[in-house]
Write a structure and sequence with these properties.
- Helix 3 runs parallel beside helix 5 (157-170).
- The chain has helices spanning 48-55, 87-94, 112-122, 128-141, 157-170, 187-202, 214-220, 238-243, 248-258, and strands at residues 10-19, 22-32, 37-41, 63-68, 71-72, 75-78, 81-84, 97-100, 175-179, 207-210, 223-228, 231-237.
- A hairpin with a 2-residue loop joins strand 6 (75-78) and strand 7 (81-84).
- The chain contains nine helices and twelve strands.
- 37% of the residues lie in helices and 26% in strands.
Length: 259
């Protein structure tokens, strides 16, 4: 595990979010160190996806603060105190945080290569030749070098999700967020996506993963954070969580997957 003296890659301080009368998140505190893989577990509706969306400000928290490598996300210092970031400033922050969604969201009119190079060229304004070389390397990394000129309609769900991972990596993010990246896949395709994610974890990519894949969390996570009803019920090293869960609610949750 990384040294505690390092600046956290992501830090949440008292982050909360409400939707009407529903409290989706209640004062979440979380520190993710560079190189860690944190798996967020919990039942449906526990606030896992909302937590991810608060990190990159797709859902601005109603209270609390989010930091990316020590820099505040979503607000900046102004003459009269903290003021909300404008759209341009938020867009710049989001280029530092990659996100892979449950549903793949590839552009159907672009090839695998086209999907990977689009944002680095047009958002980051990087040289086309450099970006294409990087994209070819990333497609090879996710096992899809031979699919660079293939359109999404002719790829399997697992291949599409691997292209989505390559697309996120192409932006050279400091952190990768995964929101249940295998839940929309047929069971036989799940393993190929999880294999790529395990490789990224071994390579030291900082990742926050919302998942129901317990074996992946057991094998790849540095730590597990278990949410229920918008609250952190337990946070532990992965082995401790799965072998010796500290709370009754965690034990109940794990029993569902061990039957």
């Amino acid at each position: 595990m990384p040294e505690d003296t390092a600046v956290p890659a992501v830090e949440l301080r008292g982050v909360g979010k409400r939707f009407g009368d529903h409290e989706a998140l209640a004062k979440i505190d979380l520190r993710v160190m560079p190189g860690e893989t944190i798996c967020i577990l919990g039942p449906s509706g526990s606030g896992k996806s909302t937590l991810l969306r608060c990190i990159n400000w797709l859902e601005p928290p109603d209270w609390g603060a989010v930091f990316l490598h020590g820099e505040r996300v979503g607000v900046r210092s102004g003459a009269g105190g903290n003021v909300p970031m404008n759209d341009r400033e938020l867009a710049a922050v989001r280029t530092r945080i990659g996100m892979v969604f449950q549903h793949f969201n590839l552009w159907p009119h672009m090839t695998a290569l086209g999907n990977v190079i689009e944002s680095p060229i047009h958002v980051q304004r990087r040289p086309r030749a450099e970006v294409i070389a990087q994209a070819d390397h990333l497609l090879e990394k996710v096992g899809l070098a031979d699919k660079r000129n293939v359109y999404p309609a002719f790829l399997s769900g697992g291949q599409i999700q691997r292209v989505a991972i390559a697309r996120a990596l192409a932006m050279r993010p400091e952190v990768l967020l995964f929101d249940e990246p295998t839940s929309a896949l047929d069971p036989e395709l799940v393993g190929e996506v999880l294999s790529v994610m395990k490789d990224l974890a071994r390579d030291g990519m900082t990742m926050i993963v919302v998942t129901h894949e317990m074996q992946f969390a057991r094998e790849a996570a540095s730590r597990v954070v278990f949410l229920d009803k918008g609250r952190v019920v337990e946070e532990a090293v992965a082995e401790e969580f799965f072998e010796r869960p500290a709370t009754r609610r965690s034990r109940q949750f794990l029993e569902r997957f061990n039957r």
